[in-house]
Design goal:
Immunoglobulin-like, copper ion binding, 5 helices, mainly beta
């Protein structure tokens, strides 16, 4: 699995808006550092809420309200909370911001969701809930000033990954039952035997897609509680980063050893979570991917595609096989880079049209 980043990166350096502490957020697939397993079925964790500032790719500084694993570490996005099916989750939330902030996870089939009342500024509370009964990918959000939309707009979000109990997280069959049996792929070059979907995962990535309007963020961080009907985003983010920053971030880009032609290498599970208000259409160059889950179009699960739509407020999981691209000549499986981006063109820009400074990343064959 991907190692958790512990060094401080200038790209993720953040500072509190209300004090002088400097904190850093690894984001991406970094696991929530405060989470511990108290027993076979109980997970204890802590989240700290605070004001912060983020520096955009063009140097603009924008306020946000977010979560941290400790009081001195604000993260963007919040750390990935990993639980097993049916776990009892005890989450201690300390609100060090100046706004009331609650905690929510949207309901889904078989899961009633979480909707904790706002926690007053300067106080804390324990939130307890039961994890979903089936494996899957969700996201939590701080309901800033009573609004989940406000929390999402400010960046108070993080992933919650529900893993199968008593099964390896590397198993496709355990995490996505039945997908391999229905998986279908076109024959190689129209005639060859089509390669099968890999049975196991070598590494994982989590992508939280977000949108940002600086003026809206300043208003909301200052206590305004309503969003405009059309926020007109100026920045489009993956794990709080955009452009070359997200492409270079090793928690975000897909990098690994490629296999041969039609042979998987470091097969990578990518959990895509859309915390924004508009759908995303994620396109991968260099490899196609297997669709492992989709909330709106379940009939494409098991398909082999190069583009998939991620609806707002929902998640989609895919498996990137990291094969040698068949259209490279001579066929090579190393020292190659391919772009990953949103097919909605405006999302590849930032701050009035700078390209490619938006929702882009990379597939890197090492």
């Amino acid at each position: 699995m991907e190692a958790v980043q512990t060094d401080l990166s200038r790209r993720t350096l953040l500072k509190y808006g209300l004090c002088t502490l400097v904190v850093a957020g690894a984001g991406g697939s970094a696991v929530l550092g405060s989470a511990t397993r108290a027993s076979a079925t109980v997970v204890n964790a802590a989240l700290f809420v605070a004001h912060g500032e983020r520096t955009m790719i063009d140097g603009l500084v924008v306020p946000f309200v977010g979560f941290g694993s400790t009081a001195a570490r604000l993260e963007l996005p919040g750390g990935q909370l990993e639980v097993q099916t049916g776990d009892t989750v005890n989450l201690d939330i300390v609100n060090s911001s100046s706004l009331p902030v609650g905690f929510a996870i949207a309901a889904s089939p078989g899961f009633s969701g979480v909707d904790a009342a706002p926690i007053a500024a300067g106080t804390g509370r324990r939130v307890t809930f039961t994890a979903p009964s089936t494996p899957g990918t969700h996201f939590y959000v701080g309901t800033v000033s009573g609004s989940a939309d406000t929390g999402r707009a400010l960046g108070a979000t993080g992933a919650m990954v529900v893993l199968p109990r008593d099964a390896a997280r590397t198993s496709i069959d355990a995490q996505f039952p039945g997908v391999r049996a229905r998986a279908r792929r076109q024959p190689m070059f129209g005639v060859g035997t089509p390669p099968a979907i890999p049975a196991s995962v070598a590494q994982e990535r989590t992508w939280l897609f977000g949108e940002l309007n600086p003026t809206t963020a300043r208003d909301l961080a200052g206590g305004r509680i309503s969003l405009p009907s059309d926020p007109e985003p100026e920045y489009f983010l993956i794990n709080g980063l955009s452009g070359m920053l997200s492409a270079e971030d090793h928690h975000t880009n897909i990098s690994g050893r490629a296999g041969g032609l039609g042979q998987p290498g470091d097969s990578t599970l990518v959990r895509m979570i859309n915390t924004g208000r508009a759908p995303r259409s994620i396109h991968l160059h260099g490899n196609h991917f297997w669709v492992l889950s989709h909330p709106d179009t379940p009939w494409i699960v098991g398909a082999f595609k190069d583009t998939v739509t991620v609806p707002p407020g929902r998640s989609v999981s895919v498996l990137v096989p990291l094969e040698a691209p068949p259209d490279s000549y001579p066929v090579t499986n190393r020292a190659q880079k391919y772009v990953v981006h949103d097919h909605i063109e405006m999302a590849e820009t930032a701050s009035g049209g700078h390209y490619p400074s938006g929702m882009v990343s990379e597939l890197i064959l090492e």
